[in-house]
UniProtKB/TrEMBL annotation:
<feature type="region of interest" description="Disordered">
    <location>
        <begin position="1"/>
        <end position="29"/>
    </location>
</feature>
<dbReference type="InterPro" id="IPR020904">
    <property type="entry name" value="Sc_DH/Rdtase_CS"/>
</dbReference>
<keyword id="KW-0443">Lipid metabolism</keyword>
<keyword id="KW-0560">Oxidoreductase</keyword>
<dbReference type="InterPro" id="IPR036291">
    <property type="entry name" value="NAD(P)-bd_dom_sf"/>
</dbReference>
<protein>
    <recommendedName>
        <fullName>Retinol dehydrogenase 8</fullName>
    </recommendedName>
</protein>
<comment type="similarity">
    <text>Belongs to the short-chain dehydrogenases/reductases (SDR) family.</text>
</comment>
<dbReference type="GO" id="GO:0004806">
    <property type="term" value="F:triacylglycerol lipase activity"/>
</dbReference>
<dbReference type="GO" id="GO:0006654">
    <property type="term" value="P:phosphatidic acid biosynthetic process"/>
</dbReference>
<dbReference type="InterPro" id="IPR002347">
    <property type="entry name" value="SDR_fam"/>
</dbReference>
<dbReference type="Pfam" id="PF00106">
    <property type="entry name" value="adh_short"/>
</dbReference>
<dbReference type="GO" id="GO:0005783">
    <property type="term" value="C:endoplasmic reticulum"/>
</dbReference>
<feature type="compositionally biased region" description="Polar residues">
    <location>
        <begin position="1"/>
        <end position="26"/>
    </location>
</feature>
<dbReference type="GO" id="GO:0005811">
    <property type="term" value="C:lipid droplet"/>
</dbReference>
<dbReference type="GO" id="GO:0019433">
    <property type="term" value="P:triglyceride catabolic process"/>
</dbReference>
<dbReference type="GO" id="GO:0000140">
    <property type="term" value="F:acylglycerone-phosphate reductase (NADP+) activity"/>
</dbReference>
Length: 323
């Protein structure tokens, strides 16, 4: 990580591992580097972003200096309450709207000016949508794609040039199992997460040449207010003109979704713990599925190599055979 010193340097060929989950790795696979990483996390007002900011800023070895960002600082109280002892030292809270070019550029420039680098970018900000897809307006679709896809790309575009200069870094995208396997009535959300999968997978071979690691965290159901935010958008979608059979199917799918959340849901803290472990791996995986209980048969059928590293290796050798 860091500024790319020899202590931190890793061969580009070994930048990604074949390990699928930090839960299964041996102790020697974790880095012994105790130097402090500058971490930029989006969407920290609640959920996974909040939990990750709290966890990293309270690391016993003080290996992380966290810039926790959110669109509206009015929502910072939950973070302040849990991090009062480290605010201003190991945790800095910034207003950042991933949907604004000006906001993103300003915050990234401010961090680089102060710290001289950004070691880790965690693209977490996002929102869901559960609805009948043909009823969704362009505006409703945009409310999902703007943070989930364009915002993520906007953040990555702003940070990557600095990581390339450092010749070190780690881009972590909070994706979803729904970016691996499709789910009825989550078509728009799935499309946004499939876009993230393709974007990260395609970018990984190039970034690897600069010793920049890429990881997609793929949770299943997570117990956050994410579902309520998704419901709020769904309620804006008029399905009154939809046929009765489709409405019945929607009701059944939503019942299944809440059943999965109740029976298989992980807490944001669990996802944060696994994400932290991925940050500390010498060779983190491209894909990290956090929940082995949620649709494992479908995921296995979709991905014969769940880590995703084989495709990175093949793409690297195909596009860059002489480098």
């Amino acid at each position: 990580m860091g500024s790319g010193s020899s202590k931190r340097a890793v061969s580009p060929k070994s930048a990604q591992s074949t390990t699928n989950s930090p839960q299964t790795v041996q102790a020697e696979e974790f880095t012994e580097d105790k130097s402090q990483r500058v971490v930029l996390v989006t969407g920290c007002s609640s959920g996974i972003g909040l939990a990750l900011a709290v966890l990293l800023s309270h690391d016993a070895d003080k290996r992380f200096k966290v810039y926790a960002t959110m669109r509206n600082l009015v929502k910072k109280d939950a973070l302040l309450e849990k991090c009062s002892g480290v605010v201003g030292d190991l945790l800095n809270i910034k207003e950042l709207d991933v949907c604004s070019d000006e906001s993103v550029k300003a915050v990234v420039a401010e961090i680089v000016e102060k710290e001289g680098r950004i070691d880790v970018l965690v693209n977490n900000a996002g929102i869901g949508l559960f609805c009948v897809p043909e009823c969704a307006t362009t505006d409703a679709i945009s409310k999902v794609f703007e943070p989930n896809v364009y915002g993520l790309m906007r953040m990555t575009n702003a940070v990557i040039p600095h990581m390339k200069k450092q010749r070190a870094g780690h881009v972590v995208n909070i994706g979803s199992v729904l970016g691996v396997v499709g789910t009825p009535f989550s078509e728009i959300y799935c499309a946004s997460k499939f876009a993230v999968e393709g974007y990260a997978e395609a970018m990984a071979p190039v970034l690897g040449k600069f010793n920049i690691k890429t990881t997609i965290i793929e949770p299943g159901p997570v117990a956050t207010n994410f579902a309520s935010n998704a419901k709020a958008i769904r309620d804006e979608v008029d399905i009154s003109g939809t046929d009765e059979q489709t409405q019945a199917l929607l009701k059944s799918a939503l019942t299944k979704m809440y059943h999965s959340l109740t029976n298989y849901g992980q807490t944001p803290e669990e996802i944060a713990e696994l994400t932290k472990k991925a940050l500390l791996l010498k060779r983190p995986p491209l894909r990290l599925q956090t929940n082995s209980k949620y649709r494992p048969d479908q995921v296995a059928a979709k991905l014969s190599d769940p880590s995703g590293n084989k495709i990175v290796e093949l793409s690297t050798s195909y596009f860059f055979p002489e480098q």
